[in-house]
Amino acid sequence: MSLPDCPECQSEYTYEDGELLICPECAHEWKEGEQTAAEEQHVIQDAVGNVLSDGDTVTVIKDLKIKGSSSVVKVGTKVKSIRLLPDASDGHDIDCKIEGIGAMKLKSEFVKKA
Q1: In whole angstroms, what is the distance from residue 83 CA to residue 57 CA?
Q2: How far is it, in rounded angstroms, from Cα 54 to Cα 71?
Q3: Which of 28, 36, 72, 101 could be 23's S-S partner, Cβ–Cβ 3.0 to 4.6 Å?
Q4: Residues contacting 25, CB < 8 A, separation 6+
Q5: Are 104 and 98 in contact (CB under 8 A)?
Q6: What is the dihedral of CA 85, 86, 87, 93, to 10 degrees?
């Protein structure tokens, strides 16, 4: 029987210690079959801590310069029907379409649930 890779760092060098599995590379300990909180449910929150979900309407709380353009998304701009991207590695965890600008990605730290 082969042991599962570490859920934190994906190391293949895990070992058993009693009923715990241990990763020697990152020192993460877990029980077999147990999921980490991040794997169970990835929760995305707005700037004030409200939990966001697909289809929500949010308001931009800071002027955001658009990279590669002279356009700016102004404070107070409402963005309807957002789509969450839980696996965004660059921090842009909201996919949306803004009227007058088009499709773009936003960071949840710059929006507030409307």
Answers
A1: 10
A2: 26
A3: 28
A4: 6, 9, 11, 13
A5: yes
A6: 50
User: Model confidence over 14-41: pLDDT tens digits?
Assistant: 999 988 999 999 998 988 776 554 445 5
Given a cut of 70, the residues of the chain with pLDDT beneath it are 1, 34-41
40 phi/psi in degrees, rounded to 5: -65, -50
Q: How many CB atoms lie within 10 A of CB 27?
A: 10
